[in-house]
Structure formats: structure tokens, C-alpha cells
């Protein structure tokens, strides 16, 4: 076990999480971790199955005397979102995650931690090897590529799971039982712009926007954090009112489901106007200060002249068209829930933008608690792109998870929670995309619930998980499994 975790309790959970930190597990790169877990399970006599899309299913018989009790599935995903602060040398395909313990939290200071969903996976693995745990027939479903497409849950063949109840361990707020989640769909925008020779009196400039907090595009979308792509487009549009701006290159964001923290652009402008840049940047930052002083205190913008010569760029009209599209396209919360106080119903996140050699691309993540609203909102983004002469299409749709307040599993979990912690748990839906919607589509008989520890800053560097809440999750999970095993405890 990593020295960062060796004194933490519950020790079995943190030991597994240390392994997950040590083995790189970017989306679509989970095979090494999966192979390790197969060997681990086989050494303990636990049945292992890898399905046709690469999901790992681990099965353990019920405790003696409880073989006839309906089985339960513990579910999480193997992959993690990979983000690092600028200047951090970290290869997510080779390097272990460096985590430290500070003030009751485990934190990765310069990268994402992978507590989403590594802690959930660790809880499930610990349950498989807990020696004195009373439990029904137990399955652990560990899916692949949840973060960039939900391919694992999407490809799960109907009838694969033997259990009748499923506990998803992928939510991030302790003290809440989640019984519903948003569905989602991606929108991809593409356009090819012609390049034109630059006049001889033009010079290349690099604008870089940085210092934003970023975050999860579902859980954090309502917090009013800045989107680096949108802010950079705002800056470039403002600059174009002072001088002729011609785009050469544009990059921002790294994942459709993460709020962009950084973006940069290379553009050309008349050399005679370069002297205006410093004052322009200062005034722009002064203008942003009232809007973002509290939520984005480290917001930074800088402009640098480039020594290398640039010979071609988009013309002014084409540059304005792309910038106007980025500035005007919907981003953030579009609708609040009518049924759940304080919960976002529908949103979009402009997660990634690229422009290179005239090829423009943009990727959006649209989420909604209502599948039809997600589809319609995505259609609106496609139509908006078409108004600017850009090609766009929807892709990767997945269903939400419809709440079932009368769930037997929910009633049992509420009873157990009150017994263990002396107070009721809150009931909630989440504006993130859990895999429960897809699992319900392939296994409609499943009674499902979700819970997890306190995780903050998922999908962004500085992600952290609270140690005490992990221990509480472990206590709850063991008590729920024991209650499910005992017929007299079932409701």
C-alpha cells in the first residue's frame, strides 16, 4: 500500500484504492487494471467474467445458509477522467496518481485523483474479500469507458447480471441516497475553413486563458464557474472590435464532460496595433473581475508575441463567424428541476474546441433529467450551428434513470441508514450521468439505488475525497448487505 494510505481506515478499502492509484486507468485504457483484478480475484476463488465489450464481472456465492436469497450487484466503473494542471509532468498512461492526506481528505494536488469512481470500486472489492461479512449472492460489475461514452454499460448484454438488486457506488455526496440521474447526449460540430495568406504587416499573437477551476460538467454546472473556451472567444471578439483579428489556431478543454479550465488561441493582427495588447488585457480582466472574483479568483489572461512566422490564417469574416458561434451558443444551466429543489434539470457544456489548419471542431455534453428534453436541446444546438453554416450531429445518447420512490431496496437502505447513523438519509437525483439508466434498459428487473462518500472537484486537478465519509460508506455497505441477506430484515 502507498505510504499515503497505509494508516487510513477502513484499511481494506484504502488498500484497494491505493492499487487503483498505482495502475493507470484512463478511459479505453483499463485493460491493465482489469487483468490485475482478474488475477486478484482468481487467487481468492472468485469467479471472473469479461464480457464482449470488456466489462469485468466478479461473482461470489452467498454466505452459507443464504444461497436462496436474491442476489445483489455492486457496480462501479474502472476508468477515470485524466486532467492535470499546466506545467505538471504526468503521463496518465504510465504514471501512478500521487495523492496526499490533508485535513481529513485524500487529495491529488496537480491532477485528478480518480476517486470518481475508484473509491466505489474499492468499496466493492473490499466487500468481496471481507471475511466475516454476511451477504447474499454477490456480483461486482466493473464497467469500462464510463467517462467518455458509457460503452461498458451500453454494451452489457441483457441477462448478464444474475442479481435482482443493484447498488451503484458512483455518487459523490455522503448522506444522500440517489434514486435518479440525468441522461445525456453529445453534440459534435465540424467545419472546414479556407486559409488565406497574411498581409506582410501582420504579426502572430498567442492569447492564453488559464487559472479556472473547471469541474464536473454535471455536478458543478450550476456553480457559475467560467468556461475557458467561452471566455477566450469573448476576449477575441472584444479584440476584433479594436483591430483586425484573423484566427490561426484555437484549443480549449480536454473532455466533453469537464468544464474547460484553460484555452489558447493563435491569431494574426496588424503589427501597428500590437502596442494596444497590454492595455486591452488589463481592461478585459478588470471587466471580468466583478463577474468572477468569487468563483474564479485565479482567472488569468495573457498575450504574447510569437517569433515564428505565420503565413496563413482564416480571413476576418470566417474568424468572426466561428467566434460568434462560440460566444452565442448555449452553455451552462438551461432549466432547473420542477420536482427537485436546487437540482439542475437541463444543461449543456462546451467541453472541447479545436482549430488547426482550418479544421474546426467543438464538442458539447448535453444533460437532462428528461430524455426528451436532452434530445430537443441537442437538436437546438445542431440548429444553432447550422445557422452559422457549421455541420453538427448528435451522438452517444444514453437514457436517464427514472426515480422509483416506492423501491423496496430504497426502503431497506433508509431503514439501515437510520439504524446505523441515527438520522434519516436525504433522497436526491443527480444531474450527472450514472450508468443506472443504461443498466435499467438492459436489465429492467433491477431494483437500484446509489450512494457514495463526499468527493469534491471530480474531473479537475485537486480532486479530493473525505476520509471519514469513506468509512461511513463502508459501514453502510456492510450493514445493507447483511440486511439483504437476512429474510427477516427484508421489507
TrEMBL record:
Belongs to the peptidase M20C family. Residues 208-284 form the Peptidase M20 dimerisation domain. PANTHER family: CYTOSOL NON-SPECIFIC DIPEPTIDASE. Its cofactor is Zn(2+); Co(2+). The keyword Oxidoreductase does not apply. One of its GO terms (molecular function) is metallodipeptidase activity. GO terms for cellular component: cytosol. It comes from Ferriphaselus amnicola. InterPro entries: Bact_exopeptidase_dim_dom, Peptidase_M20, Peptidase_M20_dimer, Peptidase_M20C. It comes from the Bacteria. One of its GO terms (biological process) is proteolysis. Keywords: Cobalt, Dipeptidase, Hydrolase, Metal-binding, Metalloprotease, Protease, Zinc. Its EC number is 3.4.13.18. Pfam families: M20_dimer (PF07687), Peptidase_M20 (PF01546). It is an enzyme of class 3 (hydrolase). It catalyses: Hydrolysis of dipeptides, preferentially hydrophobic dipeptides including prolyl amino acids. This is Cytosol non-specific dipeptidase.
